[in-house]
Design a protein that fits this description.
By secondary structure, the chain is an alpha/beta fold. Helices cover 34% and strands 18% of the residues. The strands form four sheets. It has a seven-stranded mixed β-sheet with strand order 10-9-11-12-13-16-17, with helices on both faces. A six-stranded mixed β-sheet has the order 2-3-1-6-7-8, with helices on both faces.
Length: 443
């Protein structure tokens, strides 16, 4: 999930907070010889205001799992939830403070969250120094776990882009203790461009395309990955422009040139806030409106009501990738989804990442269970929970069967494709395809 990058001062403050934490040995245990009756799962998510509308259904997924599984090996499980939203918006400094509080609670064996990339950059160092596991159901920025930001194999110039060059802290900088404590269920962003190319070439049967990017590292990386994969498949990128969204965003002249070169569609690497879907509206005066000439992008525009508003009557025929599984498309997930909806009465209680949060809780439970058994039924050390998470290879959950690689990334590398089929912002986008790179990367 792509958002604005945290400024370095916020990261510095988060690291300073981490440095002040007084750790009580990584065991997170209690007095010798006494077995605690309670074990806690921490949660750090936006739970209030505008961002809370997305974060609360994630918390619901965790709580639903705990309700179904109230104990682990005789320990009663409690959820310790913290809100990292300030004035309704994800706040990195608040996220870091939340993790500091959870670190100080010796019964917290692991944390589910954060929801947002910028909060993850502040939270990971704090939890890392405390050897406390974080499992995010949602974040997809590659540099949280791996170098480089963009592999050379996805660059038209065959040159990799490092995390530093992209303006991001490196995975090593986020892990001052030198261990990995961060795991996630969403796959990483560099797969979105190739997935868009696969869908354009193989499903939509498009052979000639123009490409735009919004002059930011996220959008440029998506556009690069699309161009490389699309041309390898046999398609032709007839025109490309990296426009500055702070200047003129009237690109009709570019579009006319692209149409003259035979472009059948446009790929956009970028976010709604950088006028991406305004460009879709502009296409109506140059190309045939609607599905006849698609507009394809990533999760920077996916399922975004503002994107639909900006595109206006030309919102139909927008396709966008999301680096996550759609549980509603998995038959084995349906009984769990139905049980959740029977327990939670409101439609807004369930969201796109509710089942990913449910599986995050399940993965953490399984690791805690193995760690408890390894120490003869006592409350396990936090390090041992991390070790067990890292050893996860075939956890069967609502979203599928997954494991973690050495960096903590999921082995279930699935990109979902959605389509906007209405000019009404209130109408949900339609899932149209899952592109699975679990067996092999597209580069």
């Amino acid at each position: 999930m792509q958002h604005n990058l945290a400024v370095s001062s916020r990261i510095a403050r988060a690291l300073a907070i981490a440095g002040l934490i007084v750790l009580v040995a990584a065991t997170a245990g209690c007095a010798a010889g006494t077995a605690p009756k309670v074990i806690r799962i921490g949660v750090d998510l936006p739970l209030s205001g505008a961002d809370g509308r997305a974060g609360t259904p994630v918390l619901n997924g965790v709580q639903f799992y705990v309700h179904q599984h109230p104990t682990i090996d005789g320990f009663t499980v409690e959820v310790a939830a913290r809100d990292d939203a300030v004035a309704g918006i994800d706040d990195p400094a608040q996220g870091a403070r939340n993790i500091e509080q959870l670190v100080r609670d010796s019964l917290v064996a692991g944390v589910i969250g954060p929801f947002d990339d910028i909060v993850a950059r502040a939270a990971i160092p704090v939890a890392n120094l405390a050897h406390l596991a974080l499992i995010s159901p949602t974040v997809s920025s590659r540099c949280l776990t791996k170098e480089p930001f963009l592999p050379a194999a996805l660059s038209p110039h065959h040159v990799e882009t490092s995390c530093k060059a992209a303006g991001l802290l490196t995975p090593a900088q986020l892990r001052p203790a030198g261990i990995n404590n961060f795991f996630r269920l969403a796959t990483t962003d560099e797969l979105q461009g190739p997935a868009g190319a696969d869908y354009a070439y193989k499903v939509l049967q498009l052979r000639r395309m123009a490409v735009l990017s919004d002059h930011e590292s996220y959008g440029q990386a998506l556009a690069s990955g699309f161009r490389v994969r699309y041309t390898r498949l046999g398609g032709s990128v007839v025109d490309y422009i990296d426009f500055d969204p702070t200047g003129s965003t009237n690109l009709k002249a570019f579009m006319r040139h692209a149409k003259g070169d035979g472009a059948q569609a446009i790929y956009y690497g970028g976010v709604t806030a950088n006028h991406g879907c305004v460009l879709r509206a502009q296409m109506a005066s140059v190309f045939t409106p609607g599905e006849a000439v698609p507009f394809i992008g990533g999760d920077g525009i996916a399922e975004d009501p503002n994107c639909v508003r900006h595109a206006g009557q030309n919102a139909i025929g927008i396709y966008a990738t999301v680096p996550a599984v759609v549980p509603e498309t998995i038959p084995a997930a349906q009984p769990i989804i139905n049980a959740f909806r029977a327990e939670y009465g409101s439609v807004s209680d369930y969201g796109a990442y509710t089942m990913a949060a449910y599986d995050s809780a399940g993965v953490l439970y399984a690791a805690i269970d193995r760690a408890i058994k390894a120490v003869g039924g006592r409350l396990p050390a936090r390090d041992s929970v991390i070790t067990e998470l890292a050893a996860t290879t075939a956890f069967s959950g609502a979203t599928g069967t997954l494991g973690f690689d050495a960096a903590g990334d999921t082995s279930m590398r699935v990109i979902s494709v959605f389509e906007s089929r209405s000019s009404d912002p209130a109408v949900p986008w339609i899932w149209v395809k899952a592109i699975d790179y679990s067996a092999a990367l597209p580069y």
